Here is the input.
Amino acid sequence: MLKYIGPKVIKNMEPEQTNGGGVGKSILWLVVLILIVGGFVLYGSKGGDKASKGTIKIGAILPLTGDAAAYGEAARNVLQLAAEEINQNGGINGQNLELIIEDGKCNGKDAASAMQKLANVDKTKFVIGGFCSGESLAAVPVATESKVVLLSPGSSSPDLTGVSPYFFRIFPSDAGQGELDAKAANEKKWKTIAFIQEQAEYTTGIQKVFTARFEELGGKTVVEGFSTGVTDFRSSLAKLKSQKPDALFVNSNGSANLGRILKQVKEMNWTIPLLLNEAILGDAKSIEENKSLLEGAIGVEFVADATNPKYQKLLESYKQKYEQDLPFQNYAHTEYDAVYIARDGIMTVGNDGEKLATWSRTIKDWDGASGKVTIKPDGDRESGYTPRIVHDGKVEVAQ
Here is the structure.
């Protein structure tokens, strides 16, 4: 700290000067010191303001490795795009948004570890994730204990409904997906549906809701499960074929296994109508690659309105930044919205987990790329799915 030095001290600094010149020099030194002190005060004030701004950290849990990595990599691009846009437009109350993205690997163990790090090491108060339902289900207890808000843009398991006041999602529950799929199967006059199903929270949630509703409508289901990483489905497919089902529901955590399953179905000379879950329907590349085998396959999707200006902006901005079309569009619009919802929440109530949790239940008709967002008291989004059909390698609205 600089202290004021009086004229007498300055005079002592110049002992040989005893005339008016010495007084003049004393005054000159005094002016210089005042300017120096003033400069330090001004500089320190500006530097302090800059330091106090800092950044606001927001966490994210995505499947960056494993069978669902393609979804996680695309989601990371979307989150980073939204964060850059926000920072270019003033950030969050003048502070830059900093994303800390962890790999949940689409499983509970790794997602829980990721949530622990984000909450306890990085001290984030708002986390976007998980993507997979298994990630979210495992992360919720950690988020709740740490009083950190967890917003999922992709998890759809019915088990997440009302799971915690610190959790909410802007992707609809699979309860709607399973019910609409069952209704579509019933309208086709199908009586028995076979499930070739990956053992995961997402797929199990769909199957349970489907089975409950389909049985109410007079049908039945038979299920053959497989573990993540399995590549040979012939034994399971043979068991299902022996049940003489009317349709086969391919129900995996993503599209990684789709080509293998379809190839082995074909090798068995088994011609059967297909149902697909939304995760598979949303992979345009896989649908195109298997278009001959998927012709006429049905399912449901949660899709954005193509005429929505914010959705159009997302499509254009993504292509401009990454030089490719936006992949997994039925997830990308909610991922993009998640970052902006985080921004709006923090701007409204501050970077405080408890306040953000309360605020999340007040969201009504929030306008985003995925449309109008309203969060119900149980943390679910008010919205739904639409029936879809595969035709010539494209997923279209079913008539």
In short: Residues 366 and 373 are 5 Å apart (CA to CA).
